[in-house]
Please model this.
Amino acid sequence: MSECPAELVYAETHEWARLDEDGNVLVGISDYAQDQLGDVVYVELPELDRSVGVAEEAGVVESVKAASDLYSPVTGTVVAVNDALEDAPELVNGDPYGDGWLFAIEPADESELDDLMDAEAYAEFCQSAQDADGDDVVDGDDLGESFSVDED
Model:
């Protein structure tokens, strides 16, 4: 069962975002996405100080099954990247909402987060996409999982 922590917001491209106390937006990929990709073997992260636009390609996650582009959920400047992923890309699989985070952005406009889905809407989005065509929306494999919103 894929987890969708309630304190996060989600993009249709399966990135999650969290506005931290320092005003930066932490970004990663959802549990659903990492599960569908399989074992992550490489992560290409954006360069520090790079300006990114909302929905702009910011990197790549490669797994044993597929490669998937990473997109910025908000407009802003990349202020941090998770250097630990260089030597341990499997952190994305083991802890996608914690140690497997990808990068942080200083947002140009925090209100862009309002355009993203809450956990419940994201879970429904993934389920409806699966139901519509019977295929996984990340890499085309059939899904046998359901979703839950993690209120913790």
